[in-house]
């Protein structure tokens, strides 16, 4: 009996240690970004493709005010309400003191400068696809934006989700580890895949989630219930959306549907970003979406 | 005396009922009319949009016609088409939010922004395809601004 207890204790200790190691936040090697030159103009394009302002600008902000990244918008989920933090270059209230490496760790791994896990309301499982060049350029562009001194509002999350270490397990389960759509892609479709699966993080809303809040990759972009209650976020796969590629590109540019009605709901914020992309990038997004088969 | 009192009570009731029915009819007529105007916008935007998307060949004359129609639509006096009590909480068949009636100055400002976007399109439509394509974004933004603030989502 005593021996059995000993075995159990040792096994428990080993799995606890293993778990602790496995759930540790991941970071880039300190030299990973050496030699990469930032390009603020490229960073601007990444900023809009990534939709940063849609979450980090003040609630209801529009137009130029969307470049004031004081945060404060609330996002209600099954796990609690998350409040977008200040990512303006303000040295105390914002992220003005972050090094480029710290920003890259946040974007690619969801790891904060003090080595904690971020909640996946911050779409790092998508941003994980971001090239290091884009991350470095985004850092440079964010530094050019106005300072905002809005203090961060703490998330309203209850036990056990308020223990950030548990997010290490979540990350192990839901790290995508590569592209969702694989196989032969044209150069244009591949660019679209980078924009949709990576920067644009379209799958965060357009794909249904499981009980643990992980994106169901088997139903990629096939639509989801609207977390804000009414209606559904539409299926945008080739099977689910009968718009032509030029319809999709025009929608992302001007917000007009093929019936010349306008986008609604959260998508109006998305259009404010996609309207800033190049025609080539919007066409690439459309080409990729037609390459996503969807559900039978 | 008694009979006439009853009669006037009945006629008063009849008037009230008829009044309500009339108000109801007029509100439905107003919703129908303003929805029709939206349809006219969509039709003319559709002609410009087809060219912008490359689904129709660019035609300066046709594009200018459509842009001029939009300019006429912006000029319409719609003040009688948005009566109190014609919001989506008060009746079916409309997605107009009650907020619209609380914020008329903002609604008017958004209307003026649409007017400017239409003027830009009037200048662009007959110039060339690239100008037309560039002006679509401004129009979309102006339409969306009002829809986002004052229209309920579908279903």
If you compute it from the alpha carbons, what radius of gyration of chain A comes out, rounded to the nearest whole angstrom? 20 Å
Oligomer: heterodimer
Shape of chain A: globular
Distance between the termini of chain A: 56 Å
Low-confidence segments of chain A, given as residue ranges, are: none
Cα-atom Rg of chain B, whole angstroms?
21 Å
Report the CATH superfamily of chain B: Cytochrome c/b562
Query: How would a textbook summarize the main sheet of chain A?
Result: 3 strands, antiparallel
Determine the most extensive contact between two protein chains.
A-B, 23 and 24 residues
Give me the CATH fold name of chain B.
Answer: Four Helix Bundle (Hemerythrin (Met), subunit A)
Average pLDDT taken over every residue of chain B? 89
CATH class of chain B: Mainly Alpha
- List the domain count of chain B as a whole number: 1
Helix/strand-derived category of chain A reads mainly alpha
Count the beta strands of chain A: 5
Could you name the ranges of chain B where pLDDT drops below 50 across 5 or more consecutive residues?
A: none
Tally of strands of chain B? 0
